[in-house]
Amino acid sequence: MTTTSSRIDSKVAERAMLTHPFYQAWTEGRLPLDTLRAYARQYFHHVEAFPRAVSAVHSACPDRDGRRMLAENLAEEEGIEAGKQDHASLWLMFACGLGESEEGVRGQDLNAETRALIDTFRKLSRRSYASGLGALYAYESQFPGVASAKIEGLVDRYGINDEATLRFFRVHESADIEHSSVCRALLDRLPEDQRAEAVAAGEELASALWNFLSGVEARETVN
Q1: Which of 51, 68, 119, 158 is within CB 3.0–4.6 Å of 77 for a Cys-Cys bond?
Q2: What pLDDT does residue 176 have?
Q3: In terms of residue numbers, what domain contains 12?
Q4: How far apart are CA 169 and CA 186, in angstroms?
Q5: CATH code (residue 126)
Q6: Total domain count, the chain
Q7: pLDDT for the residue 88
Q8: What percent of the chain has pLDDT over 70?
């Protein structure tokens, strides 16, 4: 039987972030540092908004064990555990490692596609539990591979080895394996009448992520 998560995997594969020309240019070292900085300024605002989407899915989850697992995900995003940093702060460390300032990142005007990504995640996470879970999985299932590719590109193509600058990606190499596994298990337990909504939400979120990258690519230099 085809599972809900595997149906979302198929939809995501059609718009996988790692296949986007912008990310391929990153991996190949063809993005000027100014373009990486512009990307970092835009993407920060999605990273900062993301915990609210996780929180909405957590609060809508009807299953106690599911809420516990999603709460652990949220706690990691927010840096609640002792010795952990919230992920928005980790992203700022990446941006500052590229030469940005926190003020410049926070004050960045958003591209239309960046705003659309944030709004789409907010809408889907609040529409229903199934919708929010599908969107969350479409994002987190991609990120371990994305994080590994970004680290490789930064180290091998840009000579960026500073661990503080790389930490956001180091964390997500492993954390989102667990997070996406949690979402996968919850998706595959959804009642039959909620599965199509979860798949549609996953597809919509994957498209919003793809369009975000296209928005940055269209405005910045790619060699």
Answers
A1: 51
A2: 65
A3: 4-218
A4: 25
A5: 1.20.910.10
A6: 1
A7: 95
A8: 98
